Amino acid sequence: MTLLETLVWLVDTPSELGEEGRLCSALIDRFAGNYDPESIVRVGDSVVIGHPTGKPLMLIVGHIDTVPSQGQAPAFEQDGLLYGLGTSDMKSGVAVMVHLLEDADVRDGPYDVVGVFYDGEEGPAAGNNLERVLQEVEWLRGAEFAVVMEPTDLRLEIGCNGAINATVRFTGKSAHSARPWLGENAITKAGAWLAELHQREPVLFEIDGLEYREVYSVTKAAGGIANNILPPTFEVNLNYRFPPLFSIEEAVGRLRLLTLAADDVEIADRAPAAPVPEGNPHLDRLAAVTKADRAAKQGWTDVARLAVYGVPAVNYGPGIVAQAHQVHEHVPIANLEPAFEGMKAFLTTPSGSRS
Hints:
Layout: H1 3-11, H2 21-31, E1 40-43, E2 46-49, E3 57-63, E4 76-78, E5 81-83, H3 87-102, H4 104-107, E6 112-118, H5 130-136, E7 145-148, E8 156-158, E9 162-171, H6 186-189, H7 191-199, E10 203-207, E11 210-223, E12 233-242, H8 248-258, E13 264-271, H9 281-290, E14 294-296, H10 303-308, E15 313-315, E16 330-332, H11 336-348
Parallel strand pairs: 3-6, 3-7, 7-15, 8-14
Antiparallel strand pairs: 1-2, 2-6, 4-5, 5-16, 8-15, 9-12, 9-13, 10-11, 11-12
């Protein structure tokens, strides 16, 4: 198959969140021709392709799940673009991974190149099964470097912001809306704080020449009982994205300072930021062979999870960031070959070489 044919095959093998088993099995069947059974390890609906032989270990990593369908048609081409669910996020990256693992020069090159195809990325952090894979296939943690092939517009997106979701509550007292002085309106009590948050500008932090933005966003709100009752409670979900300068504990402290006006703050979930692998020779070599622009990763990706296990990682892929989760999601077909060739050059260039 060509890269494009492989991408069409991946898109037309549905793998919405929670339904990844069919695609996982299809990938295992495809790799069976090039890899012995000991080199194919299935973990739930995730699969690891390859094994360590003593050469420096490099990981190429991608999730095989997509968000739920919004009624997209099967994959189709139009004006140099391939349309379909998951084309950018991230089956174009997965297609590149497949072809790299099938390439004889990569398999026989200076590194043990291992592919990690995992499920559950598009759901809650607790259901992200890269965690399970890293727990059960312990030797993966010995990798020298990993490339997560998330959509990056063919840029090297380095590090990533951390993320916290918190339930922020304001408490009042119910009363008849005709006599509001007998109660306290929890929704309007939150008004000044919400107005201040609305005017708050992103705060820039520079790390190794890259700009990360610290931002707070209210993403959900709930309050009220009936049209003629003052609401006694009001709560919002506050989503906080913090730069790699801060640990989880420091980030929680900053969020709590911002929410002092609230009556209660409950941390719902948290994910650490990924450090910038400054001075990493593999990152330098990847930058040299791909000639890709460098950028900070504003969103959260599994480079952060890999970093927790001691594996430095970077985001690089052919998908378009802005197309993720879009109803008319697409990827430029012209992005596939440069991503493959850049990664092949990286995975076949001996360590210490930059070109």
